[in-house]
Amino acid sequence: MFYSYFSNWYNLARDKIDATNGLSDVPKLAASALLIWVVPSVLSELLSGRGPDDDEEWWQWMAKTVGTYPAQTIPIARDVLNSAMSGRDYAMSPAAEPFKMLSDVARAAARDAGKREVSELLVKDAWLALGYWFQLPARQAWITLSALYDAAQGEDVELRDFFFARRRK
Asked: pTM for the complete prediction?
């Protein structure tokens, strides 16, 4: 739940800083920072389609992206920071997510009670809840299947839409 790419990233960054011996190693430290901090933080966001918004300057976006990247190595700090930056709800632990999904299904079912058709929200919540409870990659399957469905409906779909959640307009 906590150890991931960012745990390895933290250890690598710490080792590079510890290996610095005075001013003669500053270029080596700068090159290491570029390769293990700046490039991955910016490149991962660009590849995920989360680049700067139309009304945002690229240098402001890049400063925010690079500046918040090290916080991803600290379990609770990354969750609070991600919630603050994205506007999504904060969750203390991913272990609470299966129970949240069950309550989402119940809310969506109550909203749909008496209607002729089941809403997409209810289907999605139920699908994700099943994925959590049976430890299946339901979220990725939903993203890929949604892109396939949209393509079949004649919507414009990009290759990245099969792998990453799309921002709905």
From this structure: 0.56
